[in-house]
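Working notes for the structural subgroup meeting. M.R. asked for a predicted model of this chain before we commit to crystallization trials. I am recording the input and output together here so anyone reviewing the notebook later can reproduce the run.

Input as submitted:
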Amino acid sequence: YMDNEMVAWLIKNKLVPGQLEGETARVWNTILQIGFPATAGYATGPETQINGRRADFHTAHTVFGNRAQEFKFLIVECKRLAIEGQDQVWEDAGIQVGAYLSGIAKSRPSGRKFGAVAIGKMVRFYEWDTKAVSLTTLADGTYFYIDRQCATVVQ
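Returned structure, recorded in token form:
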């Protein structure tokens, strides 16, 4: 995604001190729409209601056939750059992601469910473990920088 001029510009110019959470969401909306294009049956949208709360972003895949079915599989919780070094913020946002993934797993138990916490230029990834009914961190809980580790983030 960093070879996309718009994404690179957004990260460099909008994920800077003083910017609000909305800019983090804007960057992730752009990245997700590149990674999961509408032409392949994906749609990314803001603020979906899950378990009575609003997740910042979700990505769903629609399977077309006799009856189109939409399956949410990715939740992203965004926070502003100014708080990326605060451990409690990461922990609280991870708990939020877990609650959202639990909610979508109840409505569709099959299929893998993923989550991400994006705070400024940093991101941490998760997967919902349906059997254990718990959230697990991916990549040993590593925090990735979206401007310097884009190849790893895409994986």
